[in-house]
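Exam prep: given the inputs below (a chain plus magnesium ion), describe the expected output before reading on.
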Amino acid sequence: MSIFFLNAAPAPALNSLWECVQAPQVSFDALSPIVADLWEQTGTPEALGMDPQECRQIQGALQALNQEAARLSDASGRIQTMNLQPSLQSLASSWPVRFRAPKGHLASGGCSSVRLGYDTDVGEMVTIKAAERAEGVPVSLAVIECLLSQEHWLLEMLQRDRPGAGPRVFRLERIEGKLCMVMEYLHGTELSQLHGSALIHGLKGDADLDRLLDLCRQAVAQVAALHEQGIVHCDVKPENFMYHQQRLRIFDLGIALFEGEKHLSPTGTPVYMAPEVWPHETPAEFSRDVFALGVTLYWLMTGVSPFEADSPGEIARKVMLSDPEPPSEVLLRSRPDLRDELSPTSLANLRAFDRIVMKAFSKVRESRYQNANEMLADLQSRLQVEPLPQEAALFLQDAV
Ligand SMILES: Nc1ncnc2c1ncn2[C@@H]1O[C@H](COP(=O)(O)OP(=O)(O)O)[C@@H](O)[C@H]1O
Ligand SMILES: [Mg+2]
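Solution:
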C-alpha cells in the first residue's frame, strides 16, 4: 500500500484534462485543444516541473487517446463524441498518479493541513488531513493528534452505521512523521461558496425555491444522521458541508463530541454558537447543533447571517439579545418581485420556514427542537415541496 501526495499544482492544461475525466460526457472538440496544449507542454518537462519519465508516460496516454478518437470517428472523420468518456477514464488510470488532481493542497488551518493524494490500496483519489500545529495555536500537538484520532473513529462509526453521512474514511496512519487521516475526496463545492446572495438573486419561481428548501432539508438530514449516533458536531456551518455529486455531505468532525461530553473551553465558530455555549463550556447537547443549523438555513435563504458583527463580543451580544427579522421578510425585501412570482403554496412554505428557523435558534434551548431529527420531521411535515429531480445541480452551478 502506498499513498502519493499530489504536491504539484499541475499546469492549467492538466487541470482541464482532469475536468474532462470527471465530466459525465465530453466532446472531442472540447478535448482536442487541451490534448494539443498538453502534448506541447510535456515535450518540455521543465515547463511543468515534471520528471521526464512521467512526461513520456503522459505523452503515451495522449497518443493512445488520439488513436481511440480516430477509431471512434466516422467515415467523414467526425468524432462520435459521447463514447470518449470510458476510454478517457481508462487512460487516466495509467497516468502518473500525481497528475490526476486539480490541485495538491486544499487547506491549512491552525491544527491541520489538508492535501490531496492517491491511495493505491483504495484505488482512488483521497483527502489526507494531517495533524499540524501552526504558530501561536494554544494547544499541544499531542492534543491535536487526539482530536484527529477521535475524528477518525467517529467517521468510521458513521460509515458503518450511517453510510452517506460524512466522507468515507480509510485509515489513520503516520506519513512522513505526521499523524494523518486518509479519507474520501469529496470533489465539489463547499456550501459557503454557494453565495447566499447569488442564490437568492437567482431565484426565479416555485421550482427554484423548492430546490433551495431541499438543500436546507439535506443539511438538516446530515446532522440528524450524526445525532442518531449520539454525536454532537459542535461546528455546524456552511463551510463544513460539501455539495458533492448533487448531495450535501457534512464533514469536519474535528471538535465533535458525544452527547454529554465537554470541551475544556468554549469551542466553535462565534456566529453559529448558541447562547448557552458562550459563558462557559456546558456538556454537549444536540440543541447546540440545532441552533447552528438555524443560522445556516437563515444564511442560505437570505444571504446574510443573523448575528454577524465585527467583534466576538458584539456577536455574543447579538446572539444573546437580538431578535433577527424572519428570513422570508429579508428575502422578500431584497426580492419584492417574488411576492407575485411565487405561488400561494410557496409563500406558505416561506412562512413555515420562518417558524422552523426561528424555533431552531431560539435563545432558550428548551424551546428549540431537541435534536436535528425533530427539526427534520417538522420540516418535512410543514413544507409542501415537490420531490426534486436531479437537475437541482444546475441551479446551484448557476449560483456559484
Ligand atoms: N473529505 C474531503 N474532501 C474534500 N475536501 C476536504 C475534505 N476534508 C476537508 N476538505 C477541505 O479542507 C478544508 C479543511 O478541512 P476541515 O476538516 O474542515 O478542517 P478544519 O478543522 O481545519 O476546518 C475544508 O474546508 C475543505 O475545503
Ligand atoms: Mg472546517
